[in-house]
Amino acid sequence: MDILHLAFRVYLDVVNVEGLHWTGNHGNRLSLTLNVKNGGFIYINNFDQEDSTAIDGPFFYEGNTEEKSSVYVFDFLPPVHSVCRNDTDCSAKVLNISHPYTKNKNVTIRWLPEEWVDEPAGIHHYDCEAFQLTSNTSEDNLDMHSKTPVAWQLSIRPWDLETTLPLPDPGVYAIIMTLYDSAGNSAKVRRFVVYDDVSEISITVTRPITAAEAVQNGGVFWITQSKVSLSWDGLFYNSLHRDKYMLNGIAELEPWPRMYDEVTGQPPTSRSREAIHNTDGIVFFQIDYAMSSSGSAEPHNWTLIRDAKIEIYIPPPDPESQSRNERLTVWLRAHDVIGHTANDSVVFYIDRTNPVITNVTFTEDSKRTPGVQRSHSKRR
Q1: Helix segments in the chain, DSSP class H
Q2: What residues contact 44, with CB distance under 8 A and at least 6 apart?
């Protein structure tokens, strides 16, 4: 061991003395060979001779020779996805979450090992971690305020295809997979998931669907115009999504040599860093309306809208219909990102007729006493 250590030290000294210097580039291979030979010599003093100071030698030993070679490969680049390459906002399924909006706490993450390329070292292993994202206000981005993962699976073999992480509580999570090559370089992939198995859409009974043109009389809403401006601000809400700011934008991750982030994308197929447009946690509404003269109507032609308001136009009356007791029924359905729904409806009564004055009589020192004919009905 001492001889090998000494020889290695001398070898380095030789390199320094000769001023050799070489800088490797990515992909270069450096081959080093070390040749070591042991040996030695002795002098012999024969004390049996009269002249004991006579020394014979030196006598040299023929030692053993050992040769070792090493190859050093220079790898400075992290793994790369074969489809995305340097496009860090690639639309390819670099990392596939079973569903980005889920009621299942066990989230399955899948990838295709053959799509990852690393030359010359090759992929060594994967680490997969889940971090909860939170925000303190409706204006701030969701962020990783804690650097400690809530779930993880480390040292995943390079030929594995998937792993499952159990999420502890409802919320928004960042799933980060780190790919390491055999040289220690790494790349990161970040995807997001919303887990919620407890919330629901609630209805505020004191904030019904209203029409700006409607006039309430005796518990009935009357409309006399063809254009109707409907609104229902505050009627539906998902308190968990609203109060925990779960639909806010998501902050950037700290810089990394290669980072594949989900920058853009909207529900239902993607949860990205983009904020999700919502009204009190409701991401979209469906509306339908119908005119009827009697009986009850049913929705059959839902229209998707994003905001809690819309203008509709009442069609002209059917000239063959003898009834003037028309009603406008409006149905509304609210949706959140998880797939919960809630419904509400309202009935407006349409008055297309002018007042009719009948039986007008005059008497001395008296006022006119007109009669107004109108149809009345209670709100359903």
Answers
A1: 2-18, 239-243
A2: 55, 56, 57, 59
Name the nearest CA neighbour of 162 among 106, 122, 214: 106
CA distance 112 to 159: 9
CATH 2.60.40.10 residue window(s) in the chain: 80-198+247-261, 202-241+281-350
Q: Does domain 80-198+247-261 have CATH number 2.60.40.10?
A: yes
Q: What CA–CA distance (Å, rounded) separates 260 from 262? A: 7
Residue 92's Cα: distance from chain center in Å?
Answer: 14
Kindly give the pairing relationship between strand 186-195 and strand 259-261: parallel
Residue ranges with strand state E in 196-267: 202-203, 210-211, 215-217, 220-223, 227-231, 236-237, 259-261
- pLDDT-derived band of residue 73, with 50, 70 and 90 as boundaries? confident
pLDDT digits (tens, 9 = 90+) for 220-240: 889 988 899 999 999 999 999
| Distance between CA atoms of residues 56 and 377, nearest Å | 135
Where residue 341 falls (left for φ over 0; alpha for ψ -120 to 50; beta otherwise) is beta
What are the angstrom distances between the C-alpha of 292 and each of 223, 229, 301?
Answer: 14, 19, 15
Which positions ≥6 away from 151 have C-beta within 8 Å? 129, 130, 165, 166, 167, 168
192 - beta bridge partners? 174
Cβ atoms of residues 165 and 175 within 8 Å: yes
Better-scored residue on pLDDT, 10 or 339: 339
pLDDT single digits (tens) 91-133: 667 889 989 999 999 999 999 988 899 989 999 999 999 999 9
Q: How far apart are CA 275 and CA 252, in angstroms?
A: 13
The architecture (CATH level 2) of 202-241+281-350 comes to Sandwich (2.60)
| Cα 49 from chain centre | 95
